[in-house]
Design brief:
Layout (H helix, E strand, L loop, with lengths): L2 H12 L3 E5 L3 H12 L4 E4 L3 H8 L27 E4 L10 E6 L4 E2 L2 E2 L2 H16 L7 E5 L7 H10 L10 E5 L18 E5 L2 H11 L6 E3 L3 H28 L5 H8 L22 H9 L5 H11 L1 H13 L5 E5 L14 H11 L3 E5 L5 H8 L15 E4 L4 H5 L11 E4 L14 E4 L4
Parallel strand pairs: 1-2, 1-4, 2-3, 4-7, 7-8, 9-10, 11-12, 11-13, 13-14, 14-15
Antiparallel strand pairs: 5-6, 8-9
Bound molecules: nicotinamide-adenine-dinucleotide.
Nicotinamide-adenine-dinucleotide (NAD) binds next to helix 2 and helix 4.
Length: 446
């Protein structure tokens, strides 16, 4: 490590230089948390006063690790108070000697990429840098949000390099996209290899040193564009794999395609994808749109066709398989609003298509999710809640969308009505022994 980089790292470690986080949602709050637990002095900025209050009170949304952190996580700072100041006024960062600005604002609207929030915060970051005292190191601006890589040239660099700031002299810009899987402790900011790329080799080296404070493995990319593209491509690859599995489920409904895909994945170079009720979440469903925006409409027809396929996927699964299974079943209990287990994240969850289609087909659908209150269920999903597990006996069918721990742990067999139909998204209840009259169907399993 070059001496300038070593000195920079020492300045961050000592608290001389702080980190500023722009947008304190799932990504920003967890960045704040992990950096602060590693001893970094942090400042958070968010438009939302509620978010700022939460951060100040030590509530970090999806970060499962609590503070004080377990000794094994950070032996040196496990019990030290976290040094985080959060504010709804970005100007508060000016006098805090912020050397690293992490941009964690949303970059999507519905299913499409949106640069609005990014374009909104960049001039403020520039103004913080301009108004801050001179620094021995160029200030780092690192985009953690998922972006269309060409946004870097279209507006990120032009906005930053205005009003006297010079790229690679006063400021380094980079991308260090996030890959966390907020369910469980396995795939976290700390454990996942972190891809980082800057506007120059020096910028990349500084970024790599900075992230080594919180990430076990750092993977330098050729530059910021390639780092940003990596996130989009890896998500698009998953999108294609899952879409292919789902295409098998609707195209070959007489086959247990989940079984076939499991067998196929025993070949060394084939990953396993399970057919499902649909693709949900913040990242995977949107990935193709970032790629199409980068490449230009019509440049990647395969990707555009897959997007079209997914737009009508659940309705096709319903027509080819589920409608027949659910024949005569008027009352359906849907378990899980979140798209992923043990997280409070409902963005683009397949639960929405399930509920909409069931109701359009004249069935009464009710919803339970342990991570949402009854009022939130009504508000977000527009259906009535049900009490789990006691109410299940009153339903003709159960759709298990999300394998939250309470659903997996419960001895669900005792609560299911004698002739119920069960639709299980990923086969979480595959090994249960349901009473004889119960019809169990794992999506994609024929
Ligand atoms: N959540 C994930 O699983 C995940 C994973 C990888 C990447 N990402 C990406 O990270 C980025 C952030 O996602 P998130 O899940 O943290 O979103 P989020 O909605 O949880 O949080 C975004 C935060 O930014 C704040 N905000 C919005 N506009 C702002 C503005 N102009 N100025 C200041 N604050 C503003 C919001 O109030 C909110 O608190 C997105 O690009 C997303 O695609 C998310």
């Amino acid at each position: 490590m070059a001496s300038a980089t070593r000195e920079f790292l020492a300045a961050v470690r000592s608290g001389e230089v702080g980190a500023g986080v722009w947008g304190c949602g799932h990504i920003g709050a967890s960045a704040l948390f992990h950096l602060a637990v590693a001893g970094v002095r942090c400042a958070g900025y968010d438009l939302s006063a509620a978010r700022v209050r939460d951060i100040e009170a030590g509530r970090f949304l999806s970060t499962a690790v609590t503070h004080p952190a377990p000794a094994a996580t950070t032996p040196d700072t496990a019990t030290a108070p976290l040094r985080i100041r959060a504010s709804t006024d970005w100007r508060d960062m000016i006098d805090q000697n912020i050397g690293v600005h992490l941009v964690c604002v949303p970059t999507d609207h519905g299913r499409d990429p949106s640069s609005t929030a990014l374009e909104n915060v960049l001039p403020s970051i520039r103004e913080v840098i301009r108004a801050s005292a001179p620094s021995r190191w160029p200030r780092l601006i690192i985009i953690e949000s998922t972006i269309v890589p060409s946004w870097l040239d279209e507006f990120v660099l032009p906005i930053i390099a205005q009003h006297g700031l010079e790229l690679n002299r006063d400021v380094y810009v980079g991308a260090a996209p996030r890959r966390d899987w907020f369910s469980g402790e396995e795939h976290t900011l700390r454990t996942l290899p972190r891809v980082v790329g800057g506007t120059s080799p020096e910028a990349t080296a500084l970024m790599a040193a900075f992230y080594s404070l919180v990430c076990q493995t750092v993977k330098p990319a050729k530059d910021a564009h390639h780092a940003a593209l990596t996130k989009v491509v890896e998500n698009a690859l998953r999108y294609h794999g899952i879409s292919f599995a789902n295409a098998l489920a609707v195209g070959l409904p007489r086959y247990d395609t989940a079984h076939v895909l499991a067998l196929a994945s025993s070949k060394w170079n084939i990953p396993y994808y399970h057919p499902s009720l649909g693709i949900g979440g913040h990242c995977i469903p949107l990935a193709p749109q970032y790629l199409v925006t980068e490449a230009g409409a019509g440049a990647m027809p395969l990707i555009e066709q897959t997007v079209d396929f997914n737009a009508g996927y659940f309705e096709r699964l319903y027509t080819t398989t589920l409608a027949r299974l659910l024949e005569g079943r008027a009352r359906v209990a849907v378990l899980g609003l979140a798209y992923t287990p043990d997280a409070r994240m409902e963005k683009l969850s397949p639960a929405f298509s399930v509920l909409r289609t069931l109701r359009q087909d004249g069935r009464e659908a009710r919803l339970h999710d342990p991570y949402y209150s009854d009022a939130e269920i009504r508000d977000l999903a527009g259906v009535e809640p049900l009490a789990f597990p006691d109410d299940l006996k009153d339903y003709d069918a159960i759709v298990l969308v999300t394998a939250h721990t309470p659903y997996v742990q419960d001895d669900i067999e005792r609560h299911v009505a004698p002739n119920a139909v069960i639709v299980d998204n990923f086969g979480a209840w595959r090994d249960r022994r349901f009473p004889d009259g119960v019809r169990y169907y794992e999506v994609g399993a024929g």
